[in-house]
């Protein structure tokens, strides 16, 4: 195994930056008086409901647009017989955020809910809240696994380091700054990570376009070059499956 030294240095610097921002955000939260005289757990979990529009917008976007989202979207566009027509996450997620903002955000904030399960538990009781917690927990576990798997796969390709080691190190760093800073640390590190994603994707574009395996995007969208056109299609027998996936998102 040959390690890409420049890439490894860049990754280490990125991890150090993320850890620094996470610790700084925790210190800033501690010294800003957020949560004083109130529920400390609420301050940790929802940032005292005082994140701000800029950081809140970034952390909301970063929550959706992570490694699993980008890798998964690219994978479905690339898969033969699927293509862009089956890459539903960008549109489904965007609409879900619009609907959540229009119908759910204001009443949930005004009633002081901390999690999405709170209103169900309030109406149907603690047993139902406990039952609903199980699928919610499983979803978070699988989502976290997808994010870490995407990160590990990316690092193993770019830097050529062991995927298991990269996943473990990344998870430990994320757990550390989350434990000490709560949502504030997560929100501020999300700003840094989203900026790095945006910059990194644009930096990768010329390398992707100049690769010998890449053909004219206008041609490969409609004609078969190496495989089926990347625009894809929805077959009549798949209409209900497509709709079901879209409503889920």
Helix content: over 70%
Q: Helices and strands, in N-to-C order? A: HHHHHHHHHHH
Instruction: Enumerate how many helices there are, as a single number.
Output: 11
How many angstroms separate the termini?
A: 40 Å
Shape: globular
| Largest β-sheet summary | none
Overall mean confidence score, pLDDT: 82
Beta-strand percentage range: under 5%
Radius of gyration: 21 Å
Q: What structural category arises from helix and sheet content? A: mainly alpha
Counting DSSP E segments of at least 2 residues, the number of strands comes to 0
Show unreliable segments.
Answer: none
Keywords: Glycoprotein, Ion transport, Membrane, Neurotransmitter biosynthesis, Sodium, Sodium transport, Symport, Transmembrane, Transmembrane helix, Transport
Subcellular location: Membrane
Protein name: Chitinase 1
Main location: membrane
Index terms:
72% helix, 249 residues, 11 helices
Task: Write up this protein.
Belongs to the sodium:solute symporter (SSF) (TC 2.A.21) family. It holds the Pfam family SSF. This is Chitinase 1. With 249 residues, this protein is mainly α. The protein contains 11 helices and no strands. The protein has helices at residues 5-31, 40-46, 53-64, 67-78, 89-103, 105-110, 118-124, 126-158, 163-209, 217-220, 239-248. Helix 3 crosses helix 9 (163-209). The two termini are 40 Å apart.
List the helices and strands and how they pair.
Blueprint: H1 5-31, H2 40-46, H3 53-64, H4 67-78, H5 89-103, H6 105-110, H7 118-124, H8 126-158, H9 163-209, H10 217-220, H11 239-248
Helix pairs in contact: 1-9, 2-9, 3-9, 4-8, 7-8, 8-9
Pfam family, one: SSF
Subcellular location: Membrane
Keywords: Glycoprotein, Ion transport, Membrane, Neurotransmitter biosynthesis, Sodium, Sodium transport, Symport, Transmembrane, Transmembrane helix, Transport
């Amino acid at each position: 195994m040959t390690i890409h030294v420049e890439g490894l240095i860049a990754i280490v610097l990125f991890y150090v930056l993320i850890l620094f921002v996470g610790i700084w955000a925790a210190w800033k939260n501690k010294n800003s008086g957020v949560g004083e005289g109130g529920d400390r757990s609420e301050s940790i979990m929802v940032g005292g409901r005082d994140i701000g529009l800029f950081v809140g917008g970034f952390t909301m976007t970063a929550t959706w647009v992570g490694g699993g989202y980008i890798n998964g979207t690219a994978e479905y566009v690339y898969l033969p017989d699927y293509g862009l027509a089956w890459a539903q996450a960008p549109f489904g997620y965007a609409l879900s955020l619009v609907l959540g903002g229009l119908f759910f955000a204001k009443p949930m904030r005004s009633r002081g809910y901390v999690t999405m399960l709170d209103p169900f538990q309030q109406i149907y009781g603690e047993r139902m809240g406990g039952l609903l917690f199980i699928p919610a927990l499983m979803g978070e576990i699988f989502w976290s696994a997808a994010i870490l798997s995407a990160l590990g796969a990316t690092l193993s390709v770019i830097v050529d380091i062991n995927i298991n080691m990269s996943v473990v190190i990344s998870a430990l760093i994320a757990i550390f700054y989350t434990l000490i800073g709560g949502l504030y640390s997560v929100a501020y590190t999300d700003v840094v990570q989203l900026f790095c994603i945006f910059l990194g994707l644009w930096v990768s574009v010329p390398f992707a376009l100049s690769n010998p395996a890449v053909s004219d995007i206008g041609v490969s969208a409609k004609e078969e070059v190496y495989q089926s056109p990347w625009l894809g299609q929805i077959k009549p027998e798949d209409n209900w499956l497509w709709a079901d996936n879209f409503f889920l998102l």
